[in-house]
Structures are given as structure tokens and as C-alpha cells.
Design goal:
By secondary structure, the chain is mainly alpha-helical. Helices cover 77% and strands 0% of the residues. It contains 23 helices and no strands. The two termini are 20 Å apart. Residues 481-515 have low confidence and may be disordered. Pfam families: Sugar_tr.
């Protein structure tokens, strides 16, 4: 039995569901460390002490500081994160990632003297290595313990924690801006980086008492522990027959994939797996290519360009991200109702319109000659945040944690997340160069990307809401299955037929009680 128990008898909620909420919120603390690491950088990049310590770096070098982090995440996604997640399990993988992030944070905070720039770059790179592990192991854990009908709800808690971490980092950065003594200028930005250690400690201390996911336990031949954990997670929300049915499906899926001899190379060799991999990688690429990375890192600088004071810009960024928490919580309650594709597409529409406004108004009213135009631009930066929080922010991670089989889920998710890192590296380097060369016209590039994403989502991405993780073969095919004898991927027609059959079956059958 799991060594940790959580129950609030006064709540009118099954015990298993209470435990699910606790575990997903707890893992959200891990995601908040990842978020804080990103959020604090935007204020560090405009802190006078940082500029002094690093010899007054150019905007281009600051882009390198932001971008090298994604070199670390890319390296980890491809070579480090997935073996750790499969070997140690989802919970201890998250812990190892947190430790690496903290090591990187200490290096960044110690940047000083002749080697300040090299130390900062090294710290950012190491933080990226750790964040890649955290950013995949947390949603993996949440997806693998959640019931099918509410999986989007629970996995979105990963993004709630992530956004809360960014917001906290921005508020801390704003507060440090007011520590204007000589001591504050020297230590303020350093202390703000180190503070991420505290949520990391809270997360790490409790992990030994957190149960591992049933799917990882089955994959690692611990079936008794897996059955016990699944009962614990479904207590009061599912009857014994439903629990045994879910457990049997997990065991059958793992056994079938083990007999097939699949390994990580199968992701590239097998059509049924590669069709998932390229879709997942493209989804993560689109999630960052839409402009979100630049908004996270350069928001204070963008607001300054609209005539906003540095201190006010930092506060506005913190407010924007705090509001974004509410938007992401809203996503928790709509993603399982409206589906992944609809949420993703709606978010793209909102982000594209926001980019259009921010590109057009500064051209029509240059040099901040219109206060009204500047206010509208700031407002649409906030509206952009709404679009990302209802779309790519949480939904891309939800979708990608669902579509891979247990035996290659960690590898598939990490390889896919590498697509996001590639886009982030490109955006963090292109954005400052684009702003210098094109001014606000750079927004039109990202507007176009968002509009292009919409048909791509509906043509290539089948809806996954409500399906068991073990049922994804019905959408993407099993090993050795080819939908077109000529070798072409005729998956779209297959998906349309299967979606219709699945909707009909939902209407004609009674779904198991969901947590």
C-alpha cells in the first residue's frame, strides 16, 4: 500500500479523488520550480546589479542567456531525461531534475568577476538540463494516475503550478527592484534566483512518501504494488470490477508492447509510433513558435518599448502572469468538455489577434504618440496570455502525455519536447534581432504562425479526450499495422472513422464512474 494517505472526511468527494487532487497539486509544486526559474530571469535581465556584474551585456547577449537554457533542455530531452524517468520512476526523476535545477541556480547567483558571463551561461545550461527532467516527469506522473474522463483536468495542474512559479518569480523580481541600496543592487538579483530552492525543498522532502504510478510499476514488474496503488487512487470513485478492468488493460498493454520487442528506436522505425512522435514534436514546436517564449522572457522589455517604466513593466508582467493562473484553472474545467483540439485552436485565434494588434498599432502610432494605442497594446498582451493559457500552454502537454504507450511514453514525450526546445532557441534568438530590425512588424511573423497552426491541428491531430491511455492504438495504430499498403500514412481517414465510432459508442454505453 502507498505509505502516504490523504483524506478530508468532511469533503463530499471520494477518497481516491481527494488523493488524486493532493498528488497532482503536490507535483504542481515541482512544476512551480521550473516556472520560477523562467519567471525570475525576465526581471534579472533588467536588474542593474545583473548588468553591472556581467559588464553591461548587450541585448543580444541577454538573448544568449535566455536561449542557452533551451540548449540544456534540448540536450536533456534527447539524452538524459527519458532514461532517468524510466529507470528511477516518475517521482524520483522529478526529484533529480529539481536538484539539478538548484545547482544551476546557485551557479547563476554566484556569477561575478572576470568569469561572470561564463558562470551565468553554465548555470543557465545546467538549469535547462534539470528543467527538462521536471517538465516531462511531472505531467507523466499526473497523466498515469488520472482516470480517462478527467485526465485533462488533472494534468492541467502541471501548468497551473508552472504559471504560479513564473508569477512568483516575477513578483519577487519586482520586489527586488525596490531594494536600491548598494547592497541590494549587488545581492538582490542573486537572492531572487536562490529563492527557488525553498519550493524545491518542500517538493523533495515529501517525495519518498508519494506512491509511484501504477503504469510504471507494471512496466517494472511490480504488479501487486501497481494493483494496490490503483485501488488506493480509485477508492470510492470506481467499483472493484472497474478497477480490475483498468488494471487488466494496463497489464495487457504493457505485455503486448514488451512481447513486440519495442524500444526507443521503434519510435522512429514503427509507423504507428512515428506517427505519434512527429505529431507530438510538431505540437511542442508550435507551442513555442507561437511567441510564448518571447512573451515570458522579454515581457518587461516589450512593455518598456510601449513607454512603460521599468518598475511598472515588472509589476505589469507579474499581474499578467497572476491573472494567467486563473485562466489556466479555467482550462482545467473545459479541456475535458470541449476537447484538446478545440482548446488549442481557440487559443491560436486569440493569440493571433493579439499579435496583429501589437504589430499594427505601433506602426499606425509610432514613437508612443498615442497613449490610447499603447494601452490597447498592453491590454492585448494580457489577452495573449489568455489565449496561451486556454490553448498550447496546458493542452500541448496534456495531449502529448496521452498518446504514447507506457513502455515508450517517457522517451516519446522527451523526444517530442525537444521540438519545443528547438523552437524556443529559435524564438529567443530571433525575437530581439527581429525587434531591432523590424520593430513591431515582428509580431506579424508570429501572428501568421498562429493562424497556420489552426488547420494543422484539425487535419493532423485526432481528439483524445475521454480515452484510456491504453486505447490510443485505436487512433494511431498498433505495431506492424499500416493504414496504406503503398506506405503512405493514410491515418486521417482512419481517424475520422474511428472518432465517429467512438462518439457513437459513448452515446450508447454507460461510462464508468470517473474520479
Amino acid at each position: 500500500m502507498p505509505s502516504l494517505d490523504v483524506a478530508w472526511p468532511g469533503l463530499k468527494m471520494p477518497l481516491g479523488t481527494q488523493r488524486l487532487y493532493f498528488l497532482c497539486v503536490y507535483f504542481g509544486i515541482g512544476a512551480s520550480v521550473w516556472g520560477y526559474n523562467i519567471g525570475i530571469l525576465s526581471s534579472v535581465l533588467v536588474h542593474p546589479g545583473f548588468h553591472e556584474a556581467l559588464g553591461y551585456p548587450s541585448f543580444s547577449f541577454r538573448g544568449t542567456v535566455a536561449g542557452v537554457y533551451y540548449v540544456g533542455t534540448l540536450t536533456s530531452y534527447v539524452f538524459v531525461s527519458h532514461p532517468i524517468s524510466d529507470w528511477l520512476g516518475r517521482r524520483y526523476a522529478a526529484l533529480s531534475g529539481i536538484i539539478i535545477v538548484c545547482i544551476g541556480a546557485f551557479l547563476q547567483a554566484l556569477s561575478d568577476g572576470a568569469t561572470a558571463r561564463e558562470t551565468m551561461i553554465s548555470g543557465r545550461l545546467i538549469s535547462g538540463l534539470g528543467v527538462a527532467i521536471v517538465s516531462t516527469s511531472v505531467p507523466l506522473y499526473q497523466a498515469e494516475i488520472s482516470p480517462a474522463k478527467k485526465r485533462g483536468h488533472f494534468v492541467t495542474m502541471n501548468h497551473v503550478g508552472f504559471i504560479a512559479g513564473i508569477a512568483t518569480g516575477l513578483w519577487v523580481g519586482y520586489g527586488m527592484r525596490h531594494w536600491t541600496t548598494e547592497t541590494g543592487i549587488y545581492y538582490g538579483w542573486r537572492i531572487s534566483i536562490i529563492l527557488e530552492v525553498f519550493p524545491a525543498l518542500i517538493f523533495g522532502i515529501g517525495l519518498p512518501w508519494i506512491p509511484e504510478t501504477p503504469r510504471w510499476l507494471v512496466e517494472n514488474k511490480q504488479k501487486d504494488a501497481a494493483r494496490s496503488t490503483l485501488r488506493w487512487l480509485r477508492e470510492g470513485s470506481h467499483d472493484e470490477d472497474q478497477i480490475e478492468h483498468e488494471f487488466g488493460a494496463i497489464v495487457k498493454n504493457v505485455d503486448e508492447y514488451r512481447r513486440s520487442g519495442r524500444n526507443w528506436l521503434s519510435l522512429f522505425r514503427e509507423e504507428a509510433l512515428f506517427s505519434r512522435l512527429w505529431r507530438a514534436a510538431l505540437l511542442q514546436f508550435m507551442a513555442q513558435a507561437c511567441g510564448a517564449t518571447s512573451m515570458k522572457y522579454y515581457l518587461p522589455s516589450l512593455l518598456q518599448a510601449l513607454g512603460v517604466d521599468v518598475s511598472v513593466a515588472l509589476m505589469a508582467g507579474a499581474i499578467e502572469m497572476t491573472i494567467k493562473i486563473g485562466f489556466t484553472v479555467l482550462e482545467m474545467f473545459i479541456i475535458d468538455r470541449f476537447g484538446r483540439r478545440n482548446c488549442l485552436a481557440a487559443g491560436c485565434v486569440v493569440m493571433a489577434i493579439s499579435m496583429l494588434i501589437n504589430g499594427a498599432l505601433p506602426i499606425a502610432y509610432p514613437h508612443n504618440i498615442s497613449r490610447v494605442a499603447d494601452i490597447i497594446c498592453v491590454a492585448f498582451i494580457f489577452i495573449y496570455a489568455l489565449g496561451f493559457s486556454l490553448g498550447f500552454g496546458p493542452a500541448a502537454w496534456v495531449y502529448n502525455t496521452e498518446i504514447f504507450p507506457t513502455s515508450v511514453r517517457a522517451r516519446g514525450l522527451n523526444f517530442a519536447a525537444a521540438g519545443g526546445s528547438i523552437a524556443s532557441i529559435m524564438v529567443t534568438k530571433v525575437w530581439p534581432i527581429g525587434i531591432d530590425a523590424l520593430g513591431s512588424k515582428v509580431y506579424f511573423i508570429f501572428m501568421t504562425i498562429n493562424f497556420v497552426c489552426i488547420p494543422v491541428l484539425y487535419v493532423f491531430y485526432p481528439e483524445t479526450k475521454g480515452r484510456e491511455l491504453e486505447d490510443m492504438d485505436a487512433l494511431f495504430g498498433s505495431v506492424g499495422e499500416h493504414f496504406d499498403q503503398t506506405g503512405h500514412d493514410d491515418l486521417s481517414e482512419h481517424l475520422l472513422q474511428d472518432d465517429t465510432q467512438y462518439r457513437n459508442s459513448e452515446e450508447s454505453t454507460t461510462a464508468p464512474t470517473s474520479a
